[in-house]
Automatic annotation (TrEMBL):
Protein name, per record: Urea transport system ATP-binding protein
UniProt-listed NCBIfam families: urea_trans_UrtD
Domain named ABC transporter: residues: 23-263
Keyword annotations of the record: ATP-binding, Nucleotide-binding, Transport
Organism this protein belongs to: Sodalis ligni
GO molecular function terms attached to this record: ATP binding; ATP hydrolysis activity
SUPFAM superfamilies given in the database record: P-loop containing nucleoside triphosphate hydrolases
Record's GO cellular component terms: plasma membrane
InterPro entries for this protein: ABC_AA/LPS_Transport (IPR051120), ABC_transporter-like_ATP-bd (IPR003439), ABC_transptr_urea_ATP-bd_UrtD (IPR017781), BCA_ABC_TP_C (IPR032823), P-loop_NTPase (IPR027417)
Domain of life: Bacteria
Amino acid sequence: MNEGLLTQTYPADARRDRRDPVLSLENINVSFDGFRALTSLSFQIGVGELRCVIGPNGAGKTTLMDVITGKTRPQSGRAIYDQQTDLTRLSPTQIARAGIGRKFQKPTVFEALTVFENLELALKTDKSVWACLRNKLTSEQRDRIDAMLSTLRLSHERHRAAGMLSHGQKQFLEIGMLLVQEPHLLLLDEPAAGMTDAETAYTAELFRSLAGKHSLMVVEHDMGFVETIADHVTVLHQGQVLAEGSLREVQANEQVIEVYLGR
Ligand SMILES: Nc1ncnc2c1ncn2[C@@H]1O[C@H](COP(=O)(O)OP(=O)(O)OP(=O)(O)O)[C@@H](O)[C@H]1O
């Protein structure tokens, strides 16, 4: 693993420790036409932590990510980011600019552009596609992309159209597109879905190396993957926190076994 090239520790984090929350969800309520998707949901993620959020279908995991990224406005509650900013008052663009990156389950790369160009676009987010590709990269930016390609194990694919990559490679590329933007908090929705076993193992290694430098929230159904990455697991059920703790602890929780893991 190419240490150090990814992103530096977020500067303000040097003065903090893991007990300081990077995200503090406080009594979040979301209803859709009377249906309660999130009910008084409260929990915290510490600075530099890698948190896994698990739970059965319909538990509210996607809705939770939608609230954090400003896509869904809760009826009540607060989502305090970095101990000062209430995300429920910001637009999705403001939230992205504040350093929160999100990866959706399905990779959304620009298929017609090369792997390198996809990373180039991600690095220069505030211009149109064509203006961005016409503008020359600085040597520092080029080095960053090269380093990222190496981390993603995509150096040999740099000139290939992204549409020609395997599903797993597209997932890696999209993770790289987030990382070149140096996010503070990364939200990842089933990042290992559809990956081969080797790709899944490498994703786990990559995420472990990111924790500490970034804070990560990973929504995942694959318990084997959760086991290899999680410090701490939050189990959602019917829009509320059902259990929280190490994977061992939540796996031994009777209610979690009942509603999610099965006997
Ligand atoms: N826009 C919407 N309108 C109505 N109901 C919605 C909307 N979005 C989500 N829901 C409902 O809210 C509940 C929570 O959905 P959500 O997608 O957050 O669950 P999830 O935990 O992500 O599930 P999965 O694991 O299947 O992705 C579900 O019952 C869903 O049908």
